[in-house]
Please model this.
Amino acid sequence: MVEYEERTAVASPNIAMIKYWGRRDSALNLPFNSSLSMTLDLSLRTKTSVLFTNKVRRDIFYLNHRQISNRSVNEKIDNVRKVVKEMKELAGVKESVKAVIASENSFPMDSGIASSASGGAALVYALNSSLNLNLSSRELSIFARKISGSACRSVLGGIVKWNRGKREDGLDSYAEEVLDYKGWEELTDIIAIVSYRKKVIPSSVGHDITSVTSPLYRIRPELAEESIKRALKFIRDRDFEGLGEIIMRDSNNMHAAMLDSWPPIIYMNDTSIKVIHAIERLNKSEGRIIAAYTFDAGPNAHVITVRPQAERVRKALESVRGIKKILKVGVGQGPKLVEESLFSNTRYPESKLLREILAA
Ligand code: PMV
Model:
């Protein structure tokens, strides 16, 4: 059946400089505030292959070689199912035609590197091509947002702003590129992996606990909008010092509101705190801000800097006990289609079935 051709896409995570935390609508992942991020290069990536066939009885999903059980209850998996259904309906796919989808990450999931962002972006990108939908980046961003909020920013490269929007249907809540990936090529993210453990509180739960229970959170949405305006000006001027301070203060503000939640949410660990001190010391010894730490919903540190300072930042991090691995990642171009399919990999339990489907 060649009506819908098999497609494989890769996408990378993004690191938010001004964070998304808290949703005004948890079914559609509509945020209380806009956010601003840098898409990372494809050295960190999710690869997703999709194919459509009438040889299986229901949609099948694999994540890192494991088939996702039909009974698994997980907000993000449910969102994936919903988005696949919506995109199939939009393309007018017949009921009898099912999707087989496999997704693999080149980095640990659930540990502060946003695998759901790259996963959501790679999936909608591959589906769009396979189903011949020709969607705009705005439409792709809206579909990706429904899988995981931060995924809507990974649909684009460079520096990306996700506009919070006001509409109830979310049609004005999408991401757009504010600076091309070549615009400030020197930006670099030095990632310090401090833990490979799965996070205890998924972000899908954390968003709502914080926005409902934290008194400190009440000031966050407007503060974040204001920070974005200032950050955009510093980005226009390529002023790293100005941008660096806003990045660190926004991360601290989000983690303060998380701690202020009830029950309290604590994603950082002792090593994360040591990273904060190490970067403070580094900036102090330089007499200016050359590096900015930021933490997502996990203990791993992202330290944003500019390329000429990257080695000094790495050295400063190497002196922190407890860091397991240090990665250096640049600004990325966003998702793309690739030739090599995951379904050629015989490690999949049903690879025989998949090969038969492909041969049919
Ligand atoms: O997309 P989610 O639901 O995994 O939320 C991610 C939120 C943060 O990573 C903590 C911040 C952000 O803007 O990416």
